[in-house]
Structures are given as structure tokens and as C-alpha cells.
Write a structure and sequence with these properties.
Arylsulfatase, C-terminal domain, single chain, about 475 residues, alpha/beta, 17 strands
Length: about 475
């Protein structure tokens, strides 16, 4: 297994903090509350604590008082598969959501899969989903049939029609008023906390924004120096502040784990933080996301973690922290609870695969990322006749993300053993996936070598 180091601003966690966290764990009289905030298309570089000029004081405070991750990944560079993996702890290709779902889609997250909400319901949690769902809009796939007691939001992206706003399974507004969404979502989230405060609760707060079309409420529109996109992100920051204020009002902050992240990289607007690629790409800019965890008394203050973590780690981590039974199907995520609480300093995991549709394109192991295949057309280019093809890279490309996070310098020729090791790990994993993944993998390998597009930069290596 590969390991990745945990570092921190002061590097060492004080023994007092660890002891306090352990004491808190032992003294807890009920499982912790959980607030999971998931933004839509928020880039790795869109928050102040990740280097952005956009003003995000509440999110910055969350990072300063908790743990900020620099190598956190969505399981897919697009919405639906990423969310499926986040809520199940399994690759999206295992759970029936390999691609983006639409309002007229007749499929959704496989009914045989157990979500985080389902796991925590077995521990008598009250559960709510507020915001974007995007895991199936047919009644049987909606949140209230997937472990959530309450739902309020748009069941897919805000650029899809009909753009309906729902409460549970009832449409209450069509079309939904975009400029009111963040404010109304926040009102519902605070109301849920007020009502659920006396029992353990799980709030999955999935923002519609900053997915386009953008909209902000009157008091935030024109406020940011970074234009409408900045306005939207600053309103999300305000929303987080309202949620944490609600926790403090009820003295729940030391009983509640708050996690803040994004479903994938930025689309047309937003910043990938200097990383290569954007949404719809398996380069880092499409997959690496902001991820912050805050749990006063349990997570030591001011920690920066460079370990490789995945959205798929959330379910097994919550199952461990909340003493809940895991789903019967094998999980692809790992429990990062010891790293969060300071009792461990490393995340131990095997190779992490990155899919686009059924196709494996990349694999990460520790500091290394191996590109195996790539489409023969850019993400937003017109579809070629017969559609895009996933073609093998020969030779494959290897990047050292510790020294080259923007994936500029291919170091495969200098590291043949690492290439062989990662390839062998991928080959061992493929037979564990559904038949369509195995078929796509074989078909990709049988294709001709990916041609270098006209005008593309030559692959470069460090001297």
C-alpha cells in the first residue's frame, strides 16, 4: 500500500490536542452530528484559504480551526458520478451512475446501494438533503427514498429543464427562481438544525452553485470585486456562516463534524488553482477539489493535510466516527478518521482510479499519477463522427504531483518500475468492476495509439 504524509502548519499536533480529542470521543453521549456541504463546480482555487482573491472569511475560518486538504479528489470530473461516489463510498461505475443524468433519465443511483443517509438512519439519525440531488429524478430515486427524511431543492443541475424546485416529492415552484436559491436553501438548513438539535442529525447541503447559469441574491449581487462568479461564491460563504452560527446557537459545534467540498473542478468560470484542466477532464483541474473538515475538540486546529483522500472516504469515515454499520457491499473509500482526529498521520490506500464514463483514464498512487488513456477530442469540442473515442496513451504518461502538480513534465521514462507497479495494480482491480468497465478497458487497449493533436505542446521532461 502507498502512504502519503500528513503535514500541518506547525507540523506537530500538540499532545494536548490529541488527548482532548480522545477524551471527547470517550465522553460523547451520542453520535456526532454531521453537516456535509457540497458545492457544484467550485474550483480548487476559488476559496481564500486556497489562494483566491474572492472573499470567503467563514470558509477560511473553518479551515483555520480545522483541517484543510490539498490532495482531495472527486471520483469523477462531472456531477452525477461524483455525487454517487460521495454518498456511497464506491466508484460511480459500480453504483449505476457512470455519466451525467438528465430530467428525462429513467435511471438513477442503483436501488441496491446504501447512501450515507441510509447508514446513519440505522443509528437513529434525522436526515435531510437540501439543494442539488442529481442522482435520479424519477420518484423512486429521489432523496426521500434514499435514506433522507426531508428534501428541498432542484433534483438536477440548474441549466436543465424543467427547472423545478421540490419539497420532498412535490414540485413547489416551476421555474425555480435562481437568485433566491442559496438564501432559501440556507433557511431550510438552519430550520432543520433548529428542529433536529436534540437528536443526532445528518445534513447533506448540496449547493446549486457556482454551476452556471449564475445568480446571486440582491444583497450579494455586485458585491465582489471578482464579478458575478465572486458574488455567488461569497454568498455560499455567507451560507456556511449561517449554518455554523446555528450550530453555535444551540451549543452543538463540539458535537458536530462539518465537511465542505466541491463535486468536481470548475466549468467555464472559476479557478482550478493553477492546475491543468477543468471540469470534464481527468487532469488535476477537473478532479482535485477543496476539502475542509471542522470538528472543534476532535480535529486539531490549523492542520494542512497533504495525504491523498477521496470523496469515497467520507462514508467509511462517518461510519467509523458514528459507530454505524457499514453497507454490505465492499467500499472503495478508506476510513480517514484517525487522520482527522490526530491519532494517525498518514492515509494508507491502494491505487485510486479516475473514470470518465466507463473508461479508466488515470490512476494515482501516492505522489504519482499515471495517465493511461485520453479522448481523441477535447471536452467541449464538437463530437467527431461516431463520437469520442477513449484511446490508449503509448507510451503512458507519469507525473510526480509533489513537484509537478500542473502535470507539465512526463517522468515515465525515468521511472519504469513505478509505471509497472501502477499498471499491475490497475490490472488487478479491473476484474472487480462491472462487465461494462472490463469491456471498455479491453477495447481501449485494442485501439490505435492516441495521435498528438495539431498544435499540441510536446511532452516535456525536467532536465
Amino acid at each position: 500500500m502507498a502512504t502519503a504524509k500528513l503535514t500541518r502548519r506547525s507540523f506537530f499536533v500538540s499532545s494536548a490536542a490529541v488527548v482532548a480529542g480522545t477524551a471527547c470521543s470517550v465522553a460523547a453521549t451520542r453520535p456526532p452530528n454531521v453537516v456535509l456541504i457540497n458545492c457544484d463546480d467550485l474550483g480548487y482555487g476559488d476559496l481564500g484559504c486556497y489562494g483566491s482573491a474572492i472573499q470567503t472569511p467563514n470558509i477560511n475560518r473553518l479551515a483555520a480551526e480545522g483541517m484543510r486538504f490539498t490532495n482531495a479528489y472527486s471520483a469523477s470530473p462531472v456531477c452525477s458520478p461524483s455525487r454517487a461516489a460521495l454518498l456511497t463510498g464506491r466508484y460511480p461505475t459500480r453504483v449505476g451512475v457512470p455519466e451525467v443524468l438528465f430530467p428525462d433519465s429513467t435511471t438513477g443511483l442503483s436501488e441496491s446501494e446504501v447512501t450515507i443517509a441510509g447508514v446513519l438512519k440505522n443509528r437513529n439519525y434525522r436526515t435531510a438533503c437540501i439543494g442539488k440531488w442529481h442522482l435520479g429524478s424519477q420518484p423512486r430515486y429521489l432523496p426521500t427514498n434514499r435514506g433522507f427524511d426531508f428534501y428541498f431543492g432542484i433534483p438536477y443541475s440548474n441549466d436543465m429543464n424543467p427547472r423545478v424546485l421540490m419539497r420532498n416529492t412535490t414540485v413547489i415552484e416551476n421555474p425555480a427562481r435562481l437568485e433566491t436559491l442559496t438564501e432559501r436553501y440556507t433557511e431550510q438548513a438552519v430550520r432543520f438544525i433548529d428542529q433536529a438539535k436534540d437528536a443526532p442529525f445528518f445534513l447533506y447541503f448540496a449547493h446549486t452553485y457556482p454551476h452556471i447559469p449564475l445568480a446571486a441574491s440582491h444583497r450579494f449581487r455586485g458585491r465582489s470585486k471578482e464579478g458575478l462568479y465572486g458574488d455567488v461564491v461569497e454568498e455560499i460563504d455567507w451560507s456556511l456562516g449561517e449554518v455554523t452560527n446555528a450550530l453555535r446557537k444551540h451549543s452543538l459545534e463540539r458535537d458536530t463534524l462539518v465537511m465542505f467540498t466541491s463535486d468536481n473542478g470548475p466549468w467555464y468560470q472559476g479557478s482550478p488553482g493553477g492546475l491543468r484542466g477543468r471540469k470534464n477532464s481527468t487532469y488535476e483541474g477537473g478532479l482535485r477539489v477543496p476539502f475542509i473538515a471542522w470538528f472543534p475538540g476532535r480535529i486539531p486546529h490549523g492542520i494542512t493535510c497533504h495525504s491523498v483522500v477521496s470523496h469515497m472516504d467520507v462514508l467509511p469515515t462517518l461510519a467509523g466516527l458514528c459507530s454505524a454499520r457499514r453497507p454490505p457491499k465492499p467500499l472503495d473509500g478508506v476510513d480517514i478518521g484517525p487522520v482527522l482526529t490526530g491519532s494517525g498521520q498518514q492515509v494508507h490506500r491502494d491505487v485510486l482510479l479516475f473514470f470518465d464514463f466507463w473508461n479508466v483514464q488515470c490512476a494515482r498512487l501516492g505522489r504519482w499519477k499515471l495517465h493511461l488513456a485520453r479522448y481523441d477530442a477535447p471536452p467541449y469540442a464538437p463530437q467527431p463522427p461516431g463520437g469520442k473515442r477513449n484511446l490508449p496513451l503509448r507510451p503512458v504518461e507519469l507525473y510526480d504531483l509533489e513537484t509537478d502538480p500542473d502535470e507539465s513534465y512526463d517522468v515515465a521514462p525515468e521511472n519504469p518500475r513505478i509505471v509497472t507497479d501502477i499498471l499491475s495494480r490497475v490490472e488487478r482491480l479491473i476484474p472487480t468492476f462491472p462487465e461494462l468497465v472490463q469491456k471498455a478497458y479491453v477495447e481501449t487497449k485494442a485501439q490505435q495509439t492516441l495521435p498528438v493533436p495539431v498544435g499540441a505542446l510536446p511532452r516535456r521532461r525536467k532536465e
